[in-house]
Amino acid sequence: MSTDSMVTHVVAALAVVITAAQLLGAAARKLRQPAVIGQLLAGVALGPSLLGLVPGGVHDALFPARIAPVLTALAQVALVLFLFAVGHELDLGRFRHRRAVTVVALSGFAVPMLTGAGLVLLLPGAFRSVNAGHPVDTAFTLYMAVALSITAVPVLAGIITDQGLAGSRPAVIALAAAGVIDVLSWPVLALCLAGGGSLTTWFTRVALLAAYILVMVLAVRPVLVWWTNRPVSPPTDPVPVATALALASAWATSALGLHVIFGALLAGALMPRRRDGVPDSRLPGPLRETGGLLLPVFFTVSGMSVELSALRARDLVLLLVLCAAAVVGKVASGALAARTGARLPWRESLLVGVLLNTRGLTELIVLNAGLQAHLIGPRLYALLVLMALFTTALAGPLTGPLRRPATPPPRARADPAATPAPEPVDAGERR
């Protein structure tokens, strides 16, 4: 295939992918579901599971094998820019209800981790069968633990806004706890991805990653602080430097045998903020928009990797087990922690657990990283993507009944001392 032919195929494929993703994403929103569900289904429809079944070689004509690396590269660049903005905006210290957030986050992280690892230890034969050709070892067990512990902050924020929960106590606690859970999950995922090869290789990768983080903190960040605070008129646009930093950091972690996501998040977290601790308003917006423009390509490429035809009847039993474990582990741990640690009413506690069960974008990032690192194979990848779709789609229908207030009791003599005043909500929580 010549260069001109390659460019023609890539442009045509992007047009089809973005159109399908936008149409199905809009359809998902009409059904009060996150757009990521429709965009992922667009990828499944454009992949070998559906479009590949159409006679005449339509799938191969639209998506020849040689353009797959180009689409994947574009998807990864979009992911890097988007996650840099996420890392730059994440500031857990600005949230209220810190004690409640800590208890809910630790429970919502540890219990699903133990559930995921326990499934592998209880059903090793089932995982060896569905993950044939890939070892079911310590790294795999730890990876499955991470896969069941993830909560997607961007998708969760969208659900909170769509359901009219912004600023409410359960939403604030769930959103902050989800951020803590992700912060705890990324290092564990890094250990999983560094586990390929011998023990010496693992230690070498971990040591190099630690050295890279030290260089970023002790050398790169001071230079960035000086650069952002130097007196220049007019002020320099920080977006090009931030973009270069995000891509360079992503390349560094990828070269260390990990994934580009770690470098992007680290660069975003280390990018200096304003003196009042607020992210530079010139940064997150443009990077989110640039990354978000091609982010549907990531969802669609993820969906195109799902081969439903490769699944077997017995795999569906494991899918049911995975879905049940994922839902129970997240909802139960989040609800019990909110009830006991934060003293929330049961309705609000269950709402926290249901919100934490949202996986979406972050889960897809984890699954793609595992697939590229050969920790999981196509069959298990398909099952885990279906699990992510199910748990994310479940959030909306379950959130609706829980956010409605309970039926008021019959009128009784008012007792002002027995009715606590509602807790004020500041403007920062309405976001």
From TrEMBL:
Membrane-spanning residues: 36-55, 67-88, 100-127, 139-160, 172-194, 206-228, 248-271, 292-311, 317-338, 381-402
Domain of life: Bacteria
Keyword S-adenosyl-L-methionine: no
Main location: membrane
Keywords noted in UniProt: Ion transport, Membrane, Transmembrane, Transmembrane helix, Transport
Positions of region (Disordered): 400-431
Domain Cation/H+ exchanger transmembrane: 23-402
Pfam families named in the record: Na_H_Exchanger (PF00999)
Membrane topology: Multi-pass membrane protein
Compartment(s) of residence: Membrane
Coiled-coil region: none
PANTHER family listed in its UniProt record: CATION/H + ANTIPORTER (PTHR32468), K(+)_H(+) ANTIPORTER 1 (PTHR32468:SF0)
Protein name: Cation:proton antiporter
Annotated organism of origin: Streptomyces andamanensis
Phylogenetic classification of the source organism: Bacteria, Bacillati, Actinomycetota, Actinomycetes, Kitasatosporales
